[in-house]
């Protein structure tokens, strides 16, 4: 299985956004959330790079971030940072679903 470079870049972008939120506004929640979600996404990218890939952690985290940041983007109307993270999250969702769809369903059982 190839390395999930998009997943690693996505994780680094989310973590860097948390660091930037702290640097600009001294926002501790932004720092904590950015680093926590970045770490989860990085571990999810690691799991996606295994053979066989295990995409559920990255899918769940991306879905949560897409919903949360999409709601913030809708409420504020600002593209940065909520709109960018929402779009990246949706892109990660689509990429992971398309690339790993056969690993998401349980294996068929031999029935009686």
TrEMBL record:
GO cellular component: mitochondrial membrane
Keywords for the protein's UniProt record, in alphabetical order: Membrane, Transmembrane, Transmembrane helix
GO biological process terms held by the UniProt record: regulation of heme biosynthetic process
Subcellular location: Membrane
TM stretches of this protein: 6-23, 30-49, 79-98
InterPro entries in the record: TMEM14, TMEM14_sf
Chief localisation class: membrane
Family note: Belongs to the TMEM14 family.
Stated name of the protein: Transmembrane protein 14 homolog
């Amino acid at each position: 299985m190839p390395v999930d470079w998009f997943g690693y870049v996505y994780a680094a972008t989310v973590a860097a956004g948390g660091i930037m939120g702290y640097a600009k506004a001294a926002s501790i929640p932004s720092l904590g959330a950015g680093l926590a979600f970045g770490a989860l996404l990085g571990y999810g990218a690691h799991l996606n790079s295994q053979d066989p890939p295990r995409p559920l952690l990255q899918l769940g985290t991306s879905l949560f971030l897409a919903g949360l940041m999409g709601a913030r983007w809708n409420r504020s109307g600002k593209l940065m940072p909520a709109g960018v993270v929402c779009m990246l999250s949706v892109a990660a969702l689509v990429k992971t679903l398309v690339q790993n769809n056969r690993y998401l369903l349980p294996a068929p059982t031999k029935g009686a």
